[in-house]
Amino acid sequence: MAKWLALFVGGLIGNTINTAALVLLALAGYLFGVWLERRSDPLLRHRKYLSKDQEAFQHLLHYSTFMMMGYLAKADGRVSEQEIAAAEQVFDSFQLDANGRKDAIRLFNAGKHPQFQLDSILLPLASVSRRHRALMKVFLEIQARMVIADGGRGDQIRRRPFIMIAQRLGFSEQMASRILRRVSARAQARAASKQSVMTISDAYAMLEVREQCSAQELKRAYRKAMSEHHPDKLMSEGATEQMIQAATEQTQLIQEAYQIIQEARGR
After folding, report:
1. Where do the domains of the chain lie?
2. What pTM does this model have?
3. 50 has which bridge partners?
4. Running DSSP on this structure, what letter comes out for residue 267?
5. Is-contact 83 146, C-beta < 8 A?
6. Mean pLDDT over residues 99-119, rounded?
7. CA-wise closest residue to 257 among 246, 211, 241
8. Cα 125 vs. chain centroid, distance in angstroms?
């Protein structure tokens, strides 16, 4: 019953004061969530295909996605034009309408505010991460776009908080580094695909395999990449409609990369 929203509200306020007050604020957040439900607030309006917990989780995910993007963008002290462009790409991949984009910008700006407390979203996310592993990987891939946005010194500064966030969500430093490499390779492939045709080297990087890999290794990598981003799998874990759209874009790139490699190998 609105427990994810309760954690979010309680944490958002509570992280700015002492630990003793967190208990009271968590309770206040819970009661606030109940009050919202009883008033049929749009934030928690019941849908036929979602339980109340699922819908509350989706809103937590929605808030967290854009707030954390803002937090990481400002981690090196300033938000560059490249980071703004990267955020716009995420908005585009989410296929946000005018109101949705305005809301995303508001949340992004809240995340980059100096007084923003990361634990206000990280604590409730970490509490459910183990039940949503595939979805959390996609969430981290979205955040990784901000880390690699400008390709400069800021990347290394943003890398540290990104790895910390991944570890708090239950992933190893090695996995976090792998996600960064994957997103970097896919950003190059995405750019190449929009300009003309994805290059063969970009295609291999997209699937995270060597050009000398066997047909079996290639197929295994392709199936794994498709499985991790399959809309049905993410939907079963509670992904928002916008995240499903972003994942669908990824699967299209993965399919394009696999087809390019297959054609180059004469298959």
Report:
1. 46-264
2. 0.73
3. 47
4. -
5. yes
6. 93
7. 211
8. 11
